[in-house]
Specification:
4-stranded mixed beta sheet, 4 strands
Length: about 100
């Protein structure tokens, strides 16, 4: 499965467009992650804890996007867009939405 943010794949013309697909992943950050991230905010630097949570949510969404594309008979997804949002009453959950066009090349 070829996954790309570009609209075309060089040298591989699209034979059939199978439709727009999307996948979501919502991951909650627990209290301990919040505490360590808060400390990192005070002293500065990158929060590896939140970076791992973001990466996990992105990978989950991309995996689901791939599965949806395969179920349509696609062998590629073009024009992928990733959106990241916080959700929940206190914004303690991260949502990643992956959208793209399933195609057969």
């Amino acid at each position: 499965m070829i996954l790309t943010t570009t609209a075309v794949i060089e040298g591989r013309p699209v034979q059939e467009y199978l439709g727009v697909i999307n996948a979501q992943s919502i991951i909650g950050a627990n209290m301990f992650k919040d505490i360590f991230a808060g400390l990192r905010d005070l002293i500065g630097g990158r929060s590896k804890t939140y970076e791992r949570v973001i990466e996990e949510a992105k990978e989950d969404a991309m995996r689901e996007l791939t599965q949806k594309a395969q179920s349509l008979g696609a062998n590629a997804v073009v024009g992928i867009d990733l959106d990241f949002e916080t959700v929940g009453a206190s914004g303690s959950m991260l949502m990643v939405i992956a959208t793209g066009t399933a195609v057969r090349i």
